[in-house]
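Hi Q.,

Before the meeting this afternoon, I wanted you to have the nicotinamide-adenine-dinucleotide prediction in hand. No need to reply - just skim if you have a minute. The sequence and ligand are here:
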Amino acid sequence: MRGLIGKRVLVSGGSSGIGLAAARRFLEEGCRVLVGGLDPAEVDEAVAELRPLGEVTGFAVDVGHEPDATALVEAAVRELGGIDVLANNAGIAWREPFLEITPEHFDRMLAVNLRGMFLVGQAVGRHMVERGGGGVIVNMSSTNGIAGEEDYAHYNASKGGVLLLGKTMAVELGRYGIRVNTLCPGYIRTPLNASIAGAMTDPDFESTYITTRIPLSRAGRPEDVAAAYAFLASEDAAFIHGTELVIDGGQLAVM
Ligand SMILES: NC(=O)c1ccc[n+]([C@@H]2O[C@H](COP(=O)([O-])OP(=O)(O)OC[C@H]3O[C@@H](n4cnc5c(N)ncnc54)[C@H](O)[C@@H]3O)[C@@H](O)[C@H]2O)c1
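Predicted structure with the ligand bound:
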C-alpha cells in the first residue's frame, strides 16, 4: 500500500483477533505501532509476538474509562512521537435476547464499543488537529451496525452508533486533513467469535451460520480485515472519507 512506511499507528484492541492482525499488517507495511488492549498479560504477549516484525510497544487500558482512554493516546504520542493513524478497534460482544438484556449489560456494551470509540477518537482527533498535518482514523463498526441480527440488540445499537459517530467525525475533521472511515466486518473467526460460538448449545452453530448466511461460504479471517485497515490508512484511499467499507463475504447481500 502506498504511503504507509514510517507511519505511527495506534491500534486500540490490538492484542487479539482483528486488532492483532492489523498491528501485524501495519508493521509489515513499515509502520511503527502501539497496541492497546484490556488485559496487560495479553498485551505483553502480543508485543512479544509482533516484535520480530518491527518497532512495537503496548499499553493496557479500559477504553470505556475516560482517564484510561486519554492515557492510551498519551502513551502512543510519547512512545511513537505522535499518531498518524488510529485503528479504533477495541470492542466486545456477546449474544443475549432483547427481552433479557439488563440495563447494566446494555451500559457495558455501549461503554466499550461506543463511548470507548468516542473517547479514543476524540483524544486522537485533538492531538492531530493540534499537531497539524492531518491523519487517518478508522473506526470499527460491523455488519451489525447496518442490519439487526437477532440476540445482539445492545451490540447492534453500539455499532450503529459507531457508524454515525464516524460520519460526523469525518464532516468535522475533514477540514484539518484528517480522513475518517469505518469498517463493517461480517463474521470473522477470532477469539471473540470462538467464545460466542462456544457458548451455543448447537455444536454445528458456526458451520450452519456460514453455509446459510455467507455467500462465500467461509468465515472471514482477521487478515481480511487487517488488509482493509491498511488500505483505508494508505495513500491509495486518499479521497475516501466519511464512508464505510463492508468486509463480509457477501452476507449483507443476502435477502
Ligand atoms: N469478529 C468478528 O466477527 C467481528 C465482526 C465485526 C466487528 N468486529 C469488531 O472488531 C473488533 C475486534 O473484535 P475481535 O473479534 O478481534 O475481538 P477479540 O476479542 O479477539 O479482540 C478484542 C480486542 O479489544 C480489546 N478490548 C476489549 N475490551 C476492551 C476494553 N474495555 N478496553 C480496551 N480494550 C478492550 C481486547 O483486549 C482485544 O485486544 C471489535 O470492535 C468487534 O466488535 C468483530
